[in-house]
Design brief:
Elements lengths: L1 H15 L9 H55 L11 E4 L8 H5 L13 E3 L3 H6 L5 E6 L5 H18 L2 H4 L4 E6 L10 H12 L13 H7 L3 E6 L9 H13 L4 E6 H11 L7 E5 L4 H8 L6 H13 L4 H5 L3 H10 L16 H16 L18 H18 L18 H5 L1 H14 L4 H15 L20 H22 L3 H17 L4 E2 L2 E2 L3 H7 L1 H6 L9 H33 L6 H37 L7 H10 L3 E4 L2 E4 L2 H21 L3 H14 L2 H9 L3 H17 L1
Parallel strand pairs: 3-6, 3-7, 4-5, 5-6
Antiparallel strand pairs: 1-2, 1-7, 8-9, 10-11
Helix pairs in contact: 1-2, 2-5, 7-8, 9-10, 11-12, 14-15, 16-27, 18-19, 19-20, 19-25, 20-21, 20-25, 22-24, 24-25, 27-28, 29-30
């Protein structure tokens, strides 16, 4: 616009001679400038349109790349979960009868006047793709009981929609959204908007989408903004119960802008969330997975044919008592598949299930049998794997129990390496919570003390401030991620403190505290004057990286990895910490070396530059990820020493994934199902509560009594009551009273 306006003004002046210049060269000059301005305007417009076209083409290529990655990821997971079994268990779904869905006319834009009961949506698992594509607003909620197959249906829907997208004509495929299955157990809807969460998770699982572009926006955020991502959100019920209503409200806000989405949740939890919120998910169809019938279970367990004679007594019982305890336990695909796995061996007898009268005992037996079968020495490896590792079943069970106990205590289903807690199985936890940090600080101070007291003080301060995670808000996208918003004033103070720490500690190393303090004061003032760079939910990067290195460096500071999976976060942590340390070391060496060269009476320039590089780089590297890894490694080694975890933990986790005990949910590990996690955590929880109760912990004693009563371990309850445990005595009295009332 500026070029065209200037050219037009020059042309008018040339014609009207408003500005008169009595020189022979003036008219040719104005004419030439006018032509050049017009040509420049044409070039600028062409370049702008080409840039927009190139951006659109690049976005389409990124979407196709993402579709391929998602397909490879979940096809591999489908193989490990045996979703393509030659004789699968037929699972059906239909429109829910619960009062959690909008009217049929609103959801389907159908004015026929029928309701969901008159004309429900229904079908089997393989028909969910066509049903979703027929929804005019592309919003679907899948409900079901624990183990009903919600996650499996989400995987089938993801792969089916990807296959459908591939069959579209090129011009339609370019604008078709890519279905991405995202477990949402780690989402905090009260602290993070759904779009920010999706962009973060896409960036974590597919690092190419996490690289910041020239416009300061990641490809993940751009794909979401352009509606080229269809989020399939699995596990709404796995959020804390207090967040269910706010999560549905956030989903409503996201869907209100037009994008489609899919959500899976347990039936009761979703109904409670809708009741609390007072509004359903707008224009979303809500279907519910149906219980598996006794005949469907019999047909499923009848294969392979060689197993039928052993299962025949169970089949007869299921036909005679289709509403009995055993039939109810086997009414979910999870329990039916665990039953087949638990009694695969010809030496096992499924008839023992008929002697159990409690659902708890039947589930426990099926889960225990599944884990035992998973670690049999002659177990065949999955397709594409040469051989599985050899782990003794008892030790593998103990290691899995420790991991399950950690998740159960934290109330989570996602296992990330940086959340391994200190003092996990220690009786007196209060003392153990600070032991890791105190031990690391003490060890660092002891090693540095040989170099002198000032150097020891500098090293101690360096480790201490990072052990306390004072700088974590400056690296919000590190591990663990930092989502809590902080006041601008506090952020400025934090940046000033970080800027001053490097020079002050460098001064101690150089035995020149006055030099370091002066330089630290100058650095703090400079940090306070620098602008705050905002991105997403919070401030990104430290004041050094943001101000001195430039925005183009921020893209390279992101986690980079070509492979996805839980261990990709470990590699990303190392890269981010090393990258940050190198650049801050270079900057620190330059600042301190320059100050030493300019200020009279300063330390030697070479020594000052070396010390500044080490301190600046060490401080930034520890803050950006090294301390998180050190803490994780120390806790892991302490647990491995007691044989509570394997020494080679990652190899064991990958092996458990291949055996079907664990599943990969993006960047986290999960147990195959929360019921499996709960059962595996039980032995470790019982032993730990027993140890704490024996140490005089009254709260642990009460929890132990409740657990023993749930497990039906009456003999231990009596023994504890005889030993003077008042909680055990009270529970025994209650149980006897209930028994007398029943009689």
């Amino acid at each position: 616009m500026v070029l065209v306006t200037t050219a037009l003004a020059a042309a008018i002046n040339l014609v009207t001679s408003i500005v008169q210049v009595e020189k022979p060269w003036w008219p040719p000059l104005v004419a030439t400038l006018t032509v050049l301005l017009v040509v420049a305007a044409i070039i600028v417009e062409w370049y702008e349109r080409r840039s927009q076209t190139g951006r659109a083409d690049e976005l389409e290529r990124v979407a196709d790349w993402l579709a391929g990655k998602v397909r490879n990821q979940w096809e591999h997971e489908a193989v490990l979960r045996r979703l393509h079994d030659p004789m699968p268990l037929q699972v059906h779904w239909r429109s829910t009868r619960r009062p959690v869905a909008a009217d049929r006319a609103v959801v389907l834009d159908d004015q026929a006047g029928a309701d969901w009961e008159m004309l429900p949506l229904r079908g089997h698992a393989e028909e969910i793709v066509r049903a979703f594509l027929d929804l005019p607003h592309g919003r679907l909620v899948v409900l079901g009981e624990p183990g009903a197959g919600k996650s499996v249906l989400a995987i089938l829907l993801t792969l089916g929609l990807l296959q459908h997208r591939q069959t579209l004509p090129p011009e339609e495929r370019d604008r078709a959204p890519v279905p991405v299955l995202v477990p949402i157990a780690s989402w905090n809807p009260e602290a993070e908007h759904l779009k920010a969460f999706l962009a973060r998770r896409l960036g974590e699982e597919y690092p190419r989408l996490h690289q910041i572009g020239e416009d300061g926006i990641s490809p993940a955020a751009t794909l979401i903004a352009d509606r080229l991502v269809l989020p399939i959100l699995d596990g709404l019920d796995e959020l804390p119960a207090s967040q269910h209503a706010s999560a549905v409200g956030e989903l409503n806000d996201y869907a209100g802008a037009g994008p489609g989405l899919v959500v899976t949740c347990r039936s009761r939890e979703y109904e409670q969330a809708i009741t609390t919120l007072g509004a359903e998910l707008a224009r979303a169809a809500v279907v519910e997975l149906q219980a598996v019938t006794a005949e469907q279970v019999i047909a499923f367990l009848s294969h392979p044919a060689v197993a039928r004679p052993r299962w025949q007594p169970v089949f007869d019982h299921l036909r005679a008592s289709p509403d009995g305890v055993l039939a109810k336990v086997l009414s979910t695909p999870l329990m039916a598949s665990l039953a087949r796995a638990a009694y695969t061996s010809l030496l096992t007898d499924p008839g023992e299930l008929l002697r159990m009268t409690r659902a708890f005992d039947i589930r426990a037996r099926l889960i225990d049998g599944f884990v035992t079968d998973a670690y049999l020495s002659d177990r065949p490896a999955p397709p594409g794997v040469r051989a599985l590792r050899r782990y003794p079943s008892a030790r593998a069970g103990r290691w899995l129990s420790c991991l399950a106990f950690q998740l159960a205590e934290a109330g989570r289903v996602d296992w990330w390496w940086w959340q391994l807690p200190a003092g996990l199985l220690v009786v007196r936890r209060r003392r153990e919570k600070v032991m890791i940090a105190v031990g690391a600080v003490t060890a660092a101070a002891g090693l540095a003390l040989t170099a002198g007291p000032l150097i020891a003080a500098a090293v101690t301060g360096l480790v201490a401030v990072n052990a306390l995670r004072l700088w974590q808000p400056l690296w919000p996208e590190g591990y663990p991620p930092f989502f809590r918003s902080i006041a601008r004033r506090r952020l400025v103070l934090l940046r000033m403190a970080f800027a001053a720490t490097g020079p002050v500690l460098t001064g101690l190393v150089l035995s020149a505290p006055l030099f370091g303090s002066t330089l630290g004061l100058i650095s703090a003032v400079a940090a306070a004057m620098l602008p705050i760079r905002q991105s997403g939910h919070t401030v990104r990067g430290s004041w050094l990286a943001g101000a001195w290195i430039g925005r183009w460096r921020m893209g390279r500071m992101r986690p980079m990895s070509r492979r996805t999976g839980p261990d990709a976060t470990l590699r990303a942590n190392h890269r981010a910490a090393a990258d940050t340390a190198v650049w801050h070391a270079a900057l620190g060496a330059s600042i301190v070396g320059l100050a030493a060269a300019v200020v009279p009476g300063s330390p030697d320039v070479a020594a000052a530059a070396l010390a500044g590089g080490l301190v600046y780089g060490g401080n930034a590297g520890l803050a950006a990820g090294w301390w998180t890894w050190i803490r994780y490694r120390l806790i892991h080694l302490s647990l491995a020493t007691g044989d509570l975890l394997p020494w080679r933990l990652w190899r064991f986790l990958h092996d458990a994934h291949l055996r079907g005990v664990l599943r990969q949910a993006g960047t986290s590990w999960q147990f195959r199902h929360v019921l499996l996690q709960t059962r595996l955590a039980s032995p470790t929880r019982t032993d730990h509560l027993r140890a704490r109760a024996d140490a005089g912990d009254a709260w642990a004693a009460r929890r132990l009594v409740d657990l023993l009563a749930q497990q039906g371990q009456m003999e231990e309850l009596r023994a504890r009551a005889d030993a003077g445990d008042e909680s055990a005595a009270e529970r025994l009295a209650d149980l006897h009273a209930q028994q007398l009332e029943g009689e």
